[in-house]
Design a protein that fits this description.
The protein is mainly beta. The chain has one helix and 19 strands. The chain starts with 8 loop residues before the first strand and ends with a strand.
């Protein structure tokens, strides 16, 4: 179960592979996230979160070759567009800090209580052992009509384990359920989870088409470097 206990950032020691800081709000009723609105990540993990306002990172992995997998949540009462996700890694002695940023989340627009997937990548060897990584999210409220312009992922198919650099593949069908919007540069992302239901790795791939017209679909295959028995999958487009 993924639980959320921060307003806009979450810290994690870079040397711990599966630790996510958990802060439970006393007497706050837990509630399931929105998994039905267009664009909601799909998979075999069903996180529940105690209510906390704000758009925030609610879970993150330890760095893998500098990459940190992220799960975001919209705890506000209105749809938002994620503008920027910024991570700052600070040395254990409080010394030199390094930054990593991304403007890509999957989906790019979140309905209230909806999750999104993302990752940030630091330069290799820039994160020292024991460093703490804090991640913040900048977002902008959008209209309900804008929130519907997202791609939905379905028909997920995880391959059997493979040999070589690709451990498994994830195939997903992405659908443009709108009637007027053309999705451009569609992509699919996969976040894998460990035994404690915390993120471990992130992978993404572009669709074989540059546009998905209203009512149309495309099939996307994402290569995974590690086995991924537990996962969430989501899509984005411009």
């Amino acid at each position: 179960m993924i639980r959320r206990g921060t307003r806009g950032a979450i810290d994690i020691p870079a040397t711990l592979a599966t630790l996510v800081t958990l802060v439970v709000v006393a007497a706050a009723p837990a509630g399931a996230v929105d998994t039905t609105s267009p664009g909601s990540p799909q998979g075999n993990v069903t996180p529940t979160l105690p209510p906390t306002p704000g758009v925030a990172v609610v879970a993150q992995s330890a760095p893998v070759d500098g990459q940190v997998a992220l799960v975001l949540h919209n705890g506000t009462a209105q749809p938002v567009r994620v503008d920027l996700v910024t991570g700052v890694a600070t040395r254990a002695d409080g010394g030199l800090a390094v930054r990593a940023r991304t403007a890509k989340t999957y989906p790019q627009v979140l309905a209230p209580d909806q999750l999104a997937l993302a990752s940030i990548t630091f330069l290799k060897k820039s994160i020292t052992p024991g460093a703490t990584i804090a991640v913040k999210v900048r977002s902008t409220p959008v209209s309900a009509a804008r929130a519907k312009r997202v791609l939905s992922a379905s028909d997920l198919a995880l391959s059997a384990p493979l040999t070589g650099p690709v451990a498994q593949t994830m195939r997903a069908t992405v659908t443009n359920n709108t009637s007027t919007w053309t999705a451009r540069l569609p992509e699919v992302a996969v976040v894998c989870f460990g035994e404690a239901s915390t993120p471990t790795t992130f992978a993404s791939a572009r669709a074989p088409v540059r546009r998905i017209k209203p009512g149309k679909t495309a099939s996307v295959t994402v290569s995974l470097s590690l086995l991924c028995p537990t996962y969430l999958v989501a899509a984005r487009a411009s």
